[in-house]
Amino acid sequence: MLLNTAIKSLALRQSGGAAARQLSQQVSCRGHCACTPIAPATTLRLALDSPRASVVIPNSKQNAFSTAATTVATDRPAMHKVPSKDPGETSGKEGSTPFVPTPERKYKFFRNVEVTPAGVAVIRFDNPEKKVNTLSFALMREAQTMWESEVHANAAVRSVVFTSAKESGFIAGADIFDISSVEDKSSLVPVIEEALQFFLRMKSKKVPMVAAINGPALGGGLEWALWCDYRICTDSSSTKLGLPEVKLGLLPGFGGTQNLPALVGVQGGMDMMLTGKDIRPAKAKKMGLVDLVVAPQSLESVALSTAEGLANGTIQKSKPKKKSLMNRLIEDTPPGQYLMWDKVKKMVDKNTGGNYPAPYAIVDCVQYGMTHQYGLDKFKHEREEFAKLAATKESEALIGIFDGMNQMKKHSSSADPIKVKKVAVMGAGLMGAGIAQVSAEKGYEVLLKDRDDVSLGRGISLMNDNWEKKHSRGRMTKYQYNLNTSRVTPLSDLTESWKRHFQSADLVIEAVFESLELKRKIIQQVESVTLDHCVFATNTSAIPIADIAAPGDEVKRPENIVGMHYFSPVPSMPLLEIIPHSGTSEEALATAFAVGNKQGKTCVVVKDVPGFYVNRCLGPVLVETCALVKEGVPLENLDKAMKKFGMPVGPISLIDEVGVDVASKVASFLSNADLGKRMGGGDISLMAKMVEKGWLGKKSKQGFFTYTGKKDKSIGSEVKSYLKEFTGGRVSNMSETDVQDRIASRLVNEAAKCLEDGIIENPVVGDIGLVFGIGFAPFKGGPFRYLDAVGITSYVDRMNRFAHELGEQFEPCQLLKDYAASGKKFH
Questions:
Q1: What is the distance between the alpha carbons of residues 596 and 613, in angstroms, rounded to a whole number?
Q2: Looking at CB atoms within 10 Å, which of 241, 457, 743, 767 has the fewest?
Q3: pLDDT tens, 171-229?
Q4: Residue 477: left if φ>0, alpha if ψ -120 to 50, beta else—which one?
Q5: Consecutive H or E run containing 561
Q6: Rounded distance, CA 480 to CA 460, Å?
Q7: Where is the composition biased (Basic and acidic residues) (predicted)?
């Protein structure tokens, strides 16, 4: 596939440094819980067709009232139309409908408190206006009222159980609106202090408190549980515990930086807080985060009996997990602590590039707590650091991305999607197998078809190998493994029954070679055996959808055809571009969006133009890279400058990782498309001649760099000679800032031009597309938030200077000129 292999491999994984080791975890949150895209220490893998390069770069996900946020404001103005939000997911302000207490329902955010004959007060979180429980300022105020009137002075209460009345989870985090709506972030300090005083007030009753957790307990939800004396969680697949504040540029503010390390150890606590990763029940029990793991059906009865036992002394309160000798030497001795913090700082430096302040603040808070173990100063320091982080541009950018991801989950449509039960995938290569894998994992029946059994077998092996890895790493049960494999039916042209199987397919996705003739032939094949409602999606990255869907002898149902452009490797990549042609029905478009969402993708709808959105923006970057090489800027300087800008890899390493042949095809294709002067200014024969020499990049061990090992690379003598010939011997000492501005301006201008031309619907789509498509620095929030931050007027002046000095390829698009003249912002 031509453009399908152009920078499309941004595997968002979290990675952070906990003491001596680097951790990584894929970021894929699809909703309310605090774990979604971009966390401080995110590894972005750029591996077009063959995932090879993995680079650490922050990632954003969620946050909280003082921790993991899960809901987003909806009442701020948008300059462009944005997808509507489900009030249950993203309602900004609590209490849009005034709450009127009744004897049956005294509290808005809690069920009525029940006290058992044994003196156990059962407090159930339950916000009827939302699908999940989230923490808000309003909830915390009501919690104080409820505690004082129902529990604190009640002598009959001998123990307390906190649980949820919702099957969806304990507490998924907090409402981002509470933080983002506060202009003076320093005013958060007394608000958080009030919450802390509430927790201390609870402790002062001196009765045992039990947290009974089913489903997500994230951010502030887990911090609430950490103030309890005993924690019980279920073994449900939906149960996960974590402090993901770092993903939004924040830190745990309800005592999490102090209470978590005290419970699970400094190394375990730092691991959780620096990566923001989720902890599953078995691991939570092993590390001492929870005391018991039970079946969901037993949770309440076990919690009640445990609370009774804690009250009468038959069960002992939870104690911190006993440390091994090695961990005591590391965490509890001055030499060990010195080595530990030195290692942590080096890892944070490496993983964040110094661009994300939150990990450093988390480290600082934990260190402060270790030297101020007594009194409340450590909590004061924590909330002050939280408020400082909330005021940073990095946190604002990461919250913006999280907000955008929530917006992307909803698609405004005049039609409902068809109900899809069975998905057929044509082509069992890397892309097809990946599409089949994510479809099976999300519960679809899958038909995977290729031309022969050998090709089909390779695709089946790819899926099974991925599932085996998940199972061996504890990320998938054997039952789930067997269930996934059972959902996939392998078919080939030699399978006599393949046509019968396809008759029940609701959606067919083709992932075959980039040939218009072949794709139309496949449509003809599919239409002859499927029902009229069946939607056909093409995974092309180069051929216009309109050409594939053009009515003719091969195509009888053009209204059912839509583009679904996945990014490779599909199981890791969060982005999906959905491309309707002018005749695509609303029903087909809505179906593609619904399936992409269920597959766990962040879907962006883009216009049917060459390169669509992500690869279209990449084209000018490739051209400008060639121009800078021609001017004699050393290859290492180009890579270093753009990594410092915040990209996961520099442009030279990117071309090698993608494949010089692929990058050359992309640049050539877009140069002959409709971008005009915007693809000018660089000599792309630089890459074409390298292809002729067989220098295809990392996959051939020789590209711009020579590869001698997994990580070892250098510029060989042949490449030096070739570059000397190409540049005419020129050597440039161009400043790092000029390198960054020249490459970034080409990228940002193309993104703005896509908005101007209606290729993308709004700036939010543009930001999300490039952050998840090519790894545009998450801490900058995407190209449009970046423009707002640096100032559109000054950026246009900068581009005009480049245009005057270097050529018309730098001329800012009309939309940027208009915004600069009017002083408008994109967000």
A1: 17
A2: 457
A3: 998 777 788 889 999 999 999 999 999 999 999 999 999 999 999 999 999 999 999 99
A4: beta
A5: strand 561-566
A6: 16
A7: 83-92
- Given a cut of 70, whether residue 478 has pLDDT beyond it is yes
- Alpha-carbon span 58 to 624, nearest angstrom: 26
Q: In what order do the strands lie in the sheet with 292-294?
A: 114-115, 120-125, 159-164, 209-213, 230-234, 292-294
Q: Which two tokens stand for residue 688?
A: 């074409």
Dmax of the chain from CA atoms? 90
Secondary structure (3-state) at 776: coil
Letter string b/e over residues 253-289, b meaning 16 or more CB atoms within 10 A of that residue's CB = bbbbbbbbbebbbbbbbbbbbbbbbbbbbeebbebbb
Q: Would strands 422-426 and 159-164 be described as parallel, antiparallel, or unpaired?
A: unpaired
Name the CA dihedral angle for 635, 636, 642, 644, rounded to a multiple of 10 degrees.
-170
Q: Which amino acid is at 370?
A: M
Write the DSSP symbol of residue 323.
P
Could you say which DSSP state residue 110 is in? B
The counts of H helices and E strands in the chain are 32, 26
pLDDT at position 30 is 31
* Burial status of residue 503 (CB atoms within 10 A of its CB: 0-12, 13-18, 19 or more): exposed
Q: From the CB of residue 523, how many other CB atoms can be counted at a distance below 10 Å? A: 25
Round to whole Å and give the CA distance between 610 and 594.
Answer: 24
Alpha carbon distance 244, 208 (integer Å): 27
Beta-ladder partners of 241: 217, 279
For residue 150, give the DSSP letter: I
The pLDDT, as a whole number, for residue 96 is: 61
Q: Specify the DSSP class assigned to residue 468.
A: H
- The CA distances from residue 519 to 491, 531, 536, 547, 663, in Å, are 18, 19, 11, 10, 23
Residues 577, 587, 657, 811: which is the catalytic one? 577
Quick one: CA torsion of 611, 681, 766, 348, rounded to 10 degrees? 110
Q: Which two tokens stand for residue 504?
A: 């029940």
Q: Which of 782, 537, 519, 541 is nearest to 647 (CA)?
A: 782
Active site residue 577: yes
- Write the DSSP assignment of 381-430 as a string of letters: HHHHHHHHHHTSHHHHHHHHHHHHHHHHT----SSPPP---EEEEE--SH
Contact 402, 36 (CB under 8 A): yes
Minimum mean pLDDT among 8-17, 216-225, 280-289, 807-816: which range? Answer: 8-17
Helix (H) or strand (E) holding 507: strand 507-510
Q: Which residues pair with 161 in a beta bridge?
A: 122, 210
Specify which residues 294 forms β-bridges with.
Answer: 234
Q: Which of 729, 711, 713 is nearest to 721 (CA)?
A: 729
Token readout for 709 is 């090992």
Measured in whole angstroms, the distance separating CA 117 from the mean position of its chain's CA atoms is 47
Residue with tokens 């080939």: 492
H helix or E strand, kind and range, residue 521: helix 516-527
All residues at 6 or more sequence positions from 483 whose CB lies less than 8 Å from its CB, including other chains = none
Tokens of 219: 């951010």
User: What is the radius of gyration, based on Cα positions, of the chain?
Assistant: 28
- 713-714 and 706-707 strand pairing: antiparallel
N- to C-terminal Cα separation, the chain: 35
Find out whether the peptide bond into 58 is cis, omega within 30 degrees of 0. no
Q: Helix crossing, 783-790 with 393-408: angle to 10°?
A: 150
